[in-house]
Specification:
It contains no helices and twelve strands. It has 206 residues and is an all-beta fold.
């Protein structure tokens, strides 16, 4: 079973939703904001059993724009789940958004302050993570006409010492999405959104 903290219409990142079963430590609080273009990808490769959940958000509020990208790749079986997670800022120019389409082209190995981890969570809930290097992610979104949705509300996910809270609103169109993740082609289909988001996110890990 996929162990995701995902609320698709407001954000997708179960990515970080598995954090927090590690050694005891002082609480770390991270806050992100979004007020602008957003795009998400949720797909599954039946051949490898890999689930892909990704989201990119632009925040145009304030004196300068910022862009954040989140991802979770995950494989689960009877022994538990394993995968790769990443989150943090990327250059604004790596995410372009125009009428009916958007494009992400970023190298997470060279983006300062971007964090990537391999993780394993066994069937008993024991969780370990190891810092690793990133790679290149390219995704192209194209809206599907007359298939739109909107959402306003709050989503909270808690797992052990980790909690992730989203609040805000999103207006989106369904979209097709194609691309590659660390050199591997992303599976076609799935559930993808392209639109605008106004939200705040708070991540607490202890």
């Amino acid at each position: 079973m996929r162990m995701m903290g995902r609320m698709q219409l407001i954000v997708v990142v179960g990515a970080i939703s598995l954090w927090g079963a590690g050694a005891a430590r002082a609480a770390e609080v991270t806050r992100f904001s979004a007020n602008g273009a957003s795009a998400t990808l949720n797909s599954f490769d039946p051949i490898t059993g890999t689930a892909y959940d990704m989201a990119v958000f632009r925040n145009d509020q304030g004196s300068s724009a910022t862009t954040n990208f989140f991802f979770n790749t995950q494989i689960c079986d009877a022994n538990g789940c394993r995968g790769k997670v990443g989150f943090g800022p990327i250059p604004n120019g790596d995410f372009t958004f125009g009428p009916g389409a958007a494009k992400l082209n970023t190298n997470l190995a060279t983006n300062p302050n971007y964090q990537v981890f391999n993780y394993v969570q066994d069937a008993s809930g024991n969780y370990t993570q190891t810092a690793t290097t990133g790679g290149i992610v390219t995704i192209n979104w194209t809206i599907i006409p007359r298939q739109s949705s909107s959402f306003t509300g709050v989503s909270t996910f808690v797992s052990g010492a980790f909690s992730n809270r989203f609040s805000g609103e999103q207006t989106s169109n369904r979209a097709t999405a194609t691309g590659t993740f660390f050199g591997v082609a992303l599976p076609a289909g799935g559930s993808n959104l392209l639109g605008t988001t106004k939200q705040s996110q708070m991540i607490i890990s202890r």
